[in-house]
Amino acid sequence: MSDLPLNNRIAxxxxxxxxIGKAAALALAQAGAHVVAVARTQGALEAxxxxxxxxxxxxxxxxxxxxxxxxxxxxxxxxxxxxxxRLDILVHAAALLGSLTPVAHIEPKHWDRVVSVNLTGTYRxxxxxEPLLRASEHxxxxxxxxxxxxxxxxxxxxxxxxxxxxxxxxRTWADELEQTSIRAVLLDPGAMRTRMRAEAMPGExxxxxxxxxxxxxxxxxxxxxxxGLPTANVVxxxxxxxxxxxxx
Length: 248
Hints:
By secondary structure, the protein is of the alpha/beta class. The protein has a single domain (10-242), classed as 3-Layer(aba) Sandwich (Rossmann fold). The protein contains eight helices and seven strands. The chain has helices at residues 19-30, 42-56, 70-83, 108-134, 157-176, 195-200, 216-224, 236-242, and strands spanning 10-14, 34-39, 61-64, 89-92, 140-144, 183-188, 234-235. It has a seven-stranded parallel sheet with strand order 3-2-1-4-5-6-7, sandwiched between helices. α4 links the parallel β4 and β5. α1 (19-30) crosses α7.
């Protein structure tokens, strides 16, 4: 495995049990990284570990945790520090869609839950892992976002608002760390064959959408790329069409 591009690198992936998070975990593992996989469901994490073992012969570190519980993120950072001493790659894919409903009809408890995962969870994650990324020689942080930030649509208020807030946090954080080796990127996967997409668009034929596995090579490429500050989102469909990343 010594010739793999991400050999011996430590990669933390949130939302790793399904969809794009799972695709990222599998792709990073196949590229040689040791994956620290975070998701809410123990059984789904164990299934991911089985797949990683079958593909690579190596195991993952499994962390059953709810990103919406911020104290757990503090403990996660401490545990990674104690075991590995650093973090080389972060892929933050965990997110909640929330109810697709008019803004005036959003229940406060539903609003608070989506905010806790998509927005507060991002801030607490950044707070927890920044010292670990600083300890890496080539740290990269990849945050999954959505076109709904730039293109608001009826009934998507809480999801779009929290993702917009997430983008602002990431861009601000990246600017603060310009003089370090940490580089962050916002990745817009577009419509993909995920459970979240099925919940949002129940009448859509998923066969017409790309499988999440297709984004894995892009995530591996971003984990190695010589990135600048995030001035524009990386869009999966653009990368797929061009066959390469646009210049940073």
